[in-house]
Amino acid sequence: MNGKQFYDISIRGRIAYVILCFENYVKVKYPDIDMHPVLKMMWSVVDSSDYIDNSAYRYLEIVPECLFEKDYYSTDVFEKLTEDEYNKFTKILNGDDSDLNTIMMSVYDIAMEYAYIISTRKQASGWKALISTPSPQTTGRPMWSFCSRTCINTVM
Question: What is the pTM of this model?
Fold first, then answer.
């Protein structure tokens, strides 16, 4: 797929695509780890149970670069994540896997791009698969989208 093929895909659809890329990645890289709690949190961003930005803010706290920012739990650091959740996610996720972090952060980036129309990050965390493409939701302004070839390359 290329960026133009994502033109008519909703933001929730684009996020869902990244989540599917994440599923493929962890199946290969972490076959013995149960990632269902992580996937549940990821899917909550697009399940319409809350505003997309509220769900994304909660989800951001489990992205490795945020989750492993400190090596202990503190309510000063985590506004939405409980201590039990912190302990669960730190056992599941690898803080040293930059590809895992990049894929997970992309869910947040796309959600925030939708919520605020502009990218909250200046660059796409090294994902070469991120392609600037116009989106109907932003009346032709650039919107990040993904190409499946890179998802496959990331998994392999």
Answer: 0.72
Cβ atoms of residues 92 and 37 within 8 Å = yes
Compute the distance between CA of residue 39 and CA of residue 127 in angstroms, rounded to an integer: 20
pLDDT along the chain (156 residues), means of 10: 70 89 94 96 90 90 95 92 96 95 92 63 40 40 35 35
1 CB burial (10 A radius; 0-12, 13-18, 19+): middle
Cβ(3)–Cβ(132) under 8 Å? yes
How many Cα atoms occupy the beta-carbon half-sphere of 9 within 13 Å? 21
Decide: 147 and 133 in contact? Cβ < 8 Å. Answer: no
Run of H or E including 100 = helix 98-116
Phi–psi pair at 21, nearest 5 degrees: -60, -45
